[in-house]
Amino acid sequence: MYSFQMSKFTRFNASELDARARYEVLQTRPEEYPRRACTDLLTMVNQLDRFNNIVRGPLHVALTTRLRSVHQCTMEFYSTFIFNSRCEPSDHEAVTFRCGGTTFTISMAQFGSIIGLYSDEEAGNEENTGGLRDLDATERQAAWAQIGDGIYNPSSTKSTKLRDPLYRYIHRLLTYSLNQRHDSSGVVGLKDLVVLHCIHNQKPLDVPYLLLRNMHLNRLAHAPTPIFFGGWVYRLFKHFTNIPRSFERSPWSGRVDYHICRAMNLLYEAEDGTVSFQRTQGYAWNPQEALVLHAPPPHFQYPPQGDPGQSSSQGGGFPNFQSLHDLLQETLCAPGTPTTSPTTHTTGLELSSATLTIYKMISVASGSTWRGMGAEVMVAMKTWSRRLGGTRGWLVMSPQV
């Protein structure tokens, strides 16, 4: 009986020569298992509520679901899987695969509901199946400037350039889940940037499409690239057939936990034993910084062809010195904003607050860090610091990053 059941998953007839050839190739590749978010770690660093607030809907399910896989199911699926990426979410010819010897054809919307990304009633919701899939070349630099430092390069930009440590954690989580891949070099690829952009701006993300596309690319790979996403395949197969108990189940998916984050140099351990994320080596991260540093620029939009990290002398990025001066003038001297004359004594606390306000405003608009600012930005900062209380206060009270 068991041999008959196993043959349904592992044998291919004469009309399935392509599937048989794929099966032979797949046998040379190992299977790698996913990881999910670690609620214990996020609670320890006081980021669980924030994680749940910014990661929502199907993406939250994809990053937190506990999965396990069955090797025979994974092999049959990838041997017969066909994905038509040009289909509409409700098109029933988008996804084709064989399950237990029977061929099935379903839509992307059905795929998402079957594996549990959302309920059947929510399958037609555009927020679940009509979200963002990719970013144009002209949008990538502006998207990166909102969350990271420097100029974005999809082949070399590291996650250490992300300003928010929670985003670094989510990026590593993507490596082990939705954008599962074998290496963890820390590079923020285009697929990662799309997800982080949607998280940061609270835009809907087409998770079923991204998962199916990644499955399709993984199917085309060769050894030694591992086979991924077996946990989602197992959920799909359980919906359509009875899986024999004799089939060996994998361990449950692991977690991106304390040990991984410590190896990433992402944790700050205080003398009193408390643990938090750290922004740079040896400096604890204050979650309130995300409210200012990650707000979209209110007065400035990047030109379509400009690089946010470029200086104005190179023709892109931050506006020239006069524009920066006008921006400071408008922000600090607007009606209702208290100003300080050059002759008025300013306390250290007031000066520190004003200087930090200028820094945060420029950092947001330019997408750069304190040390990464150009000379013209530093000159403008010094000029306005003198107007707020003197050069000495600038030198003493400038924020340390």
UniProtKB/TrEMBL annotation:
Residue segments, region Disordered: 296-316
Biased composition annotated in UniProt, kind: Low complexity: 303-316
A matching Pfam family: ATHILA
Domain Arabidopsis retrotransposon Orf1 C-terminal residue range list: 32-195
UniProt superkingdom: Eukaryota
Name assigned to this protein: Arabidopsis retrotransposon Orf1 C-terminal domain-containing protein
